[in-house]
């Protein structure tokens, strides 16, 4: 998830993610990040100007990773439904494979700790903008009812998020057949009859 960063930055980002998920943001101090990452406070400040800077870099890194993961093996020549199914199936796989990243995004996407510019950049560099374009394409091909594509993406996302959360809390099984059913239900919720 943090492969594009140097070892010091990786250690800080990985440690911060773990601490925030385990202890919450307010309990995660710079001194605790330094202690747990085994990176000196001075070295942390060489790369990050503040805890908020770390949180925003963490947010951007996870969003970029998620965007690449969700849209992997996604080719423009593939049909709309195929790309839809692949993207949302990838989203489920990603969320289960990287639960800390999933929890961080869910908990902090609308947090005041995340700068507005980071949120705007995330929309464009993550998977939201490509998915919005896919929904627009489905509407243009008369496959989906006409609604605001951005809203449609968020509606599908919300359904999938609750399924993943239920799975992570051991309330439902989210194996491949169930994942396919949920993705199909998302498609059917907008498909023209």
UniProtKB/TrEMBL annotation:
UniProt cross-references to Gene3D superfamilies, sorted A to Z: Tetracycline Repressor, domain 2
UniProt KW Metal-binding keyword: no
Residues of the HTH tetR-type domain: 6-66
InterPro entries in the record: Homeodomain-like_sf, HTH-type_Tx_Regulator, HTH_TetR, TetR-like_HI_0893_C
Molecular function terms from GO: DNA binding
Domain of life of the native organism: Bacteria
Annotated Pfam families: TetR_HI_0893_C, TetR_N
Keyword DNA-binding carried by entry: yes
Keyword annotations of the record: DNA-binding
DNA-binding region per UniProt: 29-48
Entry-linked PANTHER family: ACREF/ENVCD OPERON REPRESSOR-RELATED, ACREF_ENVCD OPERON REPRESSOR-RELATED
Listed name of the protein: TetR/AcrR family transcriptional regulator
Native organism: Cohnella fermenti
Higher taxonomy: Bacteria, Bacillati, Bacillota, Bacilli, Bacillales
């Amino acid at each position: 998830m943090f492969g594009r960063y140097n070892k010091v930055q990786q250690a800080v980002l990985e440690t911060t993610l773990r601490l925030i998920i385990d202890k919450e943001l307010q309990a995660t101090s710079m001194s605790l990040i330094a202690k747990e990452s085994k990176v000196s406070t001075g070295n942390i400040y060489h790369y990050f100007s503040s805890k908020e800077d770390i949180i925003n870099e963490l947010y951007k890194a996870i969003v970029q990773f998620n965007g690449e993961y969700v849209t992997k093996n996604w080719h423009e020549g593939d049909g709309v439904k195929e790309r839809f199914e692949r993207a949302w199936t990838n989203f489920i796989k990603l969320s289960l494979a990287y639960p800390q990243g999933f929890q961080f995004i869910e908990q902090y996407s609308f947090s005041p700790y995340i700068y507005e510019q980071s949120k705007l950049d995330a929309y464009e560099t993550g998977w939201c903008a490509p998915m919005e374009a896919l929904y627009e394409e489905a509407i243009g091909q008369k496959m989906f009812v006409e609604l605001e594509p951005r809203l449609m993406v968020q509606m599908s996302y919300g359904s999938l998020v609750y399924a993943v959360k239920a799975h992570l809390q051991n309330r439902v099984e989210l194996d491949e057949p169930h994942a396919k059913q949920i993705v199909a239900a998302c498609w059917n919720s907008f498909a023209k009859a």
